Amino acid sequence: MEILEKMLVDSFDLWSTSMSERASTRGRSSANSGNIYGVQKLRELILQLAVSGRLTTAANSLRSANENLSDQSKAEPFIVPSGWVWKSLREVGRVSTGKTPDTRNSNFYIGTTPFIGPGQLSMNHRILKSDKFISKEAELNTSIALPGSILMVCIGGSIGKSAIATHRVAFNQQINAIQTTDCNVEFIHMCLRAKFFLERVHQLSSGSATPIINKSRWENIQIPIPPIGQQNKIVEKVNALMQLCDQLERDALKKEIFHDNLVIHFMSLLLRAESIGSFQDNWSEVSQLFDELFISEQNINYLRGIIIDLALEGKISLQDSSKDTLVDFLELCRKNACHSSTKRGRKLNNASDFQSDKKGLHQIPESWSWIRLSELASFENGDRSKNYPSRDQFVAAGMAFINAGHLQEEGIDYSNMNFIDVETYDNLRSGKIKEGDILFCLRGSLGKFAIVKNGETGAIASSLVIIRPFAPEIVDYLGIYFSSTLAKDQILKFDNGTAQPNLAGADLGHFQVPLPPLSEQKAIVASLKRLLALCDQLSESFSKARQLECMLADSFVDQALS
Hints:
- By secondary structure, this protein is α+β, with helices and mostly antiparallel strands.
- 40% of the residues lie in helices and 14% in strands.
- Strands 4-11-8-9 form a 4-stranded antiparallel β-sheet. Strands 6-5-10-7 form a 4-stranded mixed β-sheet. A 4-stranded antiparallel β-sheet has the order 14-22-19-20.
- About 8% of the residues have low confidence.
């Protein structure tokens, strides 16, 4: 074990590789047991070495357990030491399947005995507090697990989750349990958590959409059983090694917290920039530390968000109001909107009237103004009449019928697109897209959007609205706006949904946009593209580095087990 302990300490960076970090508005990443891929692989290695006898037995004493098996069950997954035997779960203890007491009998659910389902078995092998309790009478109509029983989920997406009961509990039909006899329950639980056992559970599971393994198949899975003395010794060693894994996780968490605080400190330098000059000075300082600061996808996304927000404060590009003014641009919008607005009977303001609002939602440069989105674009819902296509009208190819799931940051995703035929499309009275439109989600994934490019055509579903800029030149700037914290905050302000987030199309018109003259808009878009391209490069480098580290961890484990 001393060699393995040294390996854990010396290979800290390998094992503490973080794979699936949780996003945070402050750019923090959460290093915990569920997120650190390397530690997961290490725990897997420890368990496999333990149940195969290699933590306590020299390799030259290992032998096949074939002689201990009947002819029909000689497919043991690995070699075990002399003196070990392969036994099915039903030979190791009493196996039972749960049952739910009749839910129509309210008296069954007035009691003190916890009643658990898969949701109460956590990923870290603990039984969580139950929100259901049953009576003594109900216990006659269910299954009871005594302290020391092992429970495992045997159906659904969480199949394989397991825990040792520390108190008396009842459990439902989605769980199987085993009360061991003459064995160390912790060792048996190690076998059930080991990779070979979980793979066998999945192999024996029936059902395509929802995997399920019945009691008969589960109780016939075989596990390696050493003498009780060796079981106790293995449990002791594994617990010590798992404590080292816990320490790895704690050290990784401390390291990430320190690093995240460092990122937040340097990002605050950018946020405190009072002018373009001070932003550029601070950016120069931060850019020298890119490789050290931005080592997670969350940190990089945090940087992206800050850059976008600063762009809408006029702090990332030099101001040049000599070429044009905001009144010039608004006059362009007014002229372009004149025909369609007159058709709808809408009275237009004069362009000079739009510059009165200087207060807005945050400070902006003198040449900018806060403008309502309704002064910059029109809004068009999809056709919600009897012409609205039903699912049975979808065809294999034709005109795209776009819903929220098809909106991606890069544009419209056609990989899983719905299509309608040309006749159905022609019958639609509204909601037909054209290049330069912004498709915006009004329900569910509020604020999700995509810009229509490259002559794309199609129609929108009822969950979307078309935002059609009066001046095509502003579309990229509005794309920046809808990616910002400013837009997200206004979405929250106007959200009128309850169970499902919901926004009325008319509310979009009230959104406030910090608007510069057209020449500045173009300069901001160009500057932002360069800065975000750098973020993309950082993200790609991070992804490649993490993939390499995970491959190294996988390779290390595979070699150790071979």
